[in-house]
Structure formats: C-alpha cells, structure tokens
C-alpha cells in the first residue's frame, strides 16, 4: 500500500495571483468598524447607565443601538452547526504563508470538539505526516490538503479541502474550519505589543528553518518570556529542540500556550480600549484567516465558549510512540510517513468519534496533557 505512493516532495509553490481590489463590502466593514469603536468609546465614557449599572459590560454593550443595527446587517444568532449531533467540531490550521518553505502546507492541524450536553472540550493534534487519501489527489500527507485546495481552486479554498479530508479520514463532520497564516499571526502579536509565555524548560533547536531555506540556532530559557511576533513563531514552530522539546507532543503543547497567550492579550481591557490596536488586529484577521464561520455565528460561539471550562480541556496528540495509534514508515522513495498501526483507520475513527466516552481506553493509547488552568 505504501510503497507505490508517489508522495509530493519539496515545496508546493504558490501561484501568482493578481492583487484583489478592495470591494465595497470590505470598505463598508472598515467603516462600520471605525463607527463601532468610536460609538463604543463615547457611549462607555458618557453613559452613566453603562458605568454605574450592575449588569455586565458585555450585556450593556450588547444593548447599544449600533450593536443591534450590526446584528441586523450581519445576521446575528445564526444557528450553530453540530447542535443536532450534540457535538461541535472545529478544525484549526496554521500555514507558514508567503516567504516560508511550503507556504501553503499546514504546519499545524488541531481538531477542537465540544460536547454540547456536558460542555466538555477536547483538542486533538493531527500529525502533519499522516498519510491519508485527499479527495481528487490520491494518497498524500495530510498537510498537503490545504495547498491542493488553494492551488486547484477547490470550492471554499484549501481550508475546505482540508476539512473534507479530515471528515473522510476520521469519520466526524467538521462544522467549522479556521486557517491562520502565521505571517499575519506574527504581525498581530506585534500589534498587541507582544505576549507573555511560560517556557516549561530550557531547550535549543539548531535546525530551525530560515526564510532563505537555511537553518539557524534558537534557544529558550525556562520561565516567563515576553515574546514579539517572530519570537513567538519560533517557539510555536520549533521541531528539533533538545531536552524533550523535539516531539510533536511538546510542539503541540507550545502552540497551545501561544494561542492562550494571544487570547488573553486580545481580551485585555487595554487592548479593547485602543482603537488603533483593535483595527490593526481586525485588519490582520481579515487578511490572514480563511474560515467558513459566518459573522452572525460569532456571538453564538462566544456564548458557547463562556460555558466551557477550558482549564479542564484535555489535549490529545496522535503519534507513533510505543503506546500510540500510529507507526512510522519509510517508503521506497525514502519518504517518512505516519500510518495506522492497525492497517486501517477504524481504530483512529473510534478514538475521535468517542473522545468524550471512552477516556479510560483512549488514555492507554495516546499522549494526554491537561491545559494549565487557562480559561477563556
């Protein structure tokens, strides 16, 4: 099965596309954003009802006329997908972006799931070298799906094809997907003024790739470090660290730390009260995120997030460790891939489908880490 597969080697290059002109809708959204920021700040400081009432800030803001008008325009309170199945699945992806080797290949792929009956949440990291069947593209590493989708104009783009691939591979519906360009991610962290990240242990990576396709040495000391965008990207993407930081498990945990740190900084009052900073963040998001989440579904997702104990969220990494579900294989072409130990994907599908039901079985097969008490 694995010896006759023609794996794509090297970098999948981006096609050159003409720059898109800013549409009327984009101009409208920009205008609405500035109006919203100005209206919010003026209303907040001048309205005694908001400042002195006992209701929460979020509830008070939601009653502002401009918010109601925006909800009407954007179609607020759209019904969330997944409610009929009592489970919501969100595929989170990260790509290197322009200037990085394999710009469109997914460097990070995580499946976030929420049990809507218990509000339990889990996060499953999917290894980039897992060999899967990508629709219309044959057997390839799963991190190629996003690139094929973009380059071949798949409906919905690379994110949609990656979501379809994960659906077919693991047998669960992907309700929402979100793909982030790491190039924009670094800019967003810089716009935030940097983030504070807890580094668990000292490590050195002397094979970190540079933009000119060479390597450099990076290192991190144990403790709290204030990171700018580039430093945070190095921390998240490092793959060859020593002292226990060279595994996919360690890398996935670092990426989770970065995401939580960004979330904390975005929701900080000093950030929300700074119009220029808010606009820069918005601009980065609209330029560098590909998603199928509708604007009207954002409020519903935020309401759902409030009910979840993210401090108890369990993070699973599917790997080829002695007790893992995967095995490492070298093909006749010399390519290293990961494949199911059992020979098919049934065991993996059972694992993903029953993530909230059979923990006692799952914990015997995969690595698990509990999030460090950070909440959203």
Automatic annotation (TrEMBL):
The keyword Ion transport does not apply. Pfam families: LytR_cpsA_psr. This is Cell envelope-related transcriptional attenuator domain-containing protein. It comes from Candidatus Kuenenbacteria bacterium CG10_big_fil_rev_8_21_14_0_10_39_14. Residues 106-266 form the Cell envelope-related transcriptional attenuator domain. Belongs to the LytR/CpsA/Psr (LCP) family. InterPro entries: LytR/CpsA/Psr_CW_biosynth, LytR_CpsA_psr. Keywords: Membrane, Transmembrane, Transmembrane helix. The chain crosses the membrane at residues 28-46.
């Amino acid at each position: 099965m694995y010896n006759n597969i023609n794996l794509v080697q090297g970098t999948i290059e981006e096609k050159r596309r003409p720059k898109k002109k800013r549409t009327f809708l984009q101009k409208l959204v920009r205008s609405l954003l500035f109006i919203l920021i100005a209206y919010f700040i003026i209303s907040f400081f001048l309205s005694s009802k908001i400042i002195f009432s006992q209701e929460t800030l979020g509830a008070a803001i939601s009653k502002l006329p401009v918010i109601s008008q925006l909800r009407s325009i954007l179609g607020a309170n759209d019904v969330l997908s997944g409610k009929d199945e009592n489970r919501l699945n969100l595929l989170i992806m990260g790509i290197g972006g322009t200037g990085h080797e394999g710009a469109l290949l997914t460097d990070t792929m995580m499946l976030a799931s929420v049990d809507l009956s218990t509000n339990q949440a889990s996060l499953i990291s999917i290894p980039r070298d897992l060999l899967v069947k990508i629709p219309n593209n044959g057997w390839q590493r799963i991190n190629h799906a996003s690139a094929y989708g973009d380059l071949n104009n798949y409906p919905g783009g690379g994110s949609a094809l990656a979501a379809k691939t994960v659906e077919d591979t693991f047998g669960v519906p992907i309700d929402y997907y979100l793909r982030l360009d790491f190039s924009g991610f670094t800019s967003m962290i810089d716009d935030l003024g940097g983030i504070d990240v807890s580094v668990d242990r000292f490590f050195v990576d002397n094979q970190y790739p540079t933009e000119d396709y060479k390597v450099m040495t990076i290192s991190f000391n144990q403790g709290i470090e204030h990171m700018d965008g580039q430093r945070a990207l190095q921390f998240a993407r490092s793959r060859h660290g020593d002292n226990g930081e060279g595994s996919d498990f360690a890398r996935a945990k670092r990426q989770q730390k970065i995401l939580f740190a960004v979330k904390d900084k975005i929701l900080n009052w000093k950030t929300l009260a700074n119009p220029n900073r808010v606009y820069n963040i918005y601009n980065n998001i609209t330029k560098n995120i590909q998603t199928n989440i509708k604007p009207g579904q954002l409020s519903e997702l935020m309401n759902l997030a409030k009910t979840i104990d993210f401090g108890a969220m369990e993070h699973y990494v599917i790997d080829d460790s002695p007790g893992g579900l995967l095995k490492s294989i070298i093909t006749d072409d010399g390519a290293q891939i990961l494949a199911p130990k059992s020979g098919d994907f049934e065991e993996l599908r059972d694992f993903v489908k029953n993530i909230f039901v059979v923990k006692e079985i799952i914990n015997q097969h995969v690595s698990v880490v509990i999030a460090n008490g950070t909440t959203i």
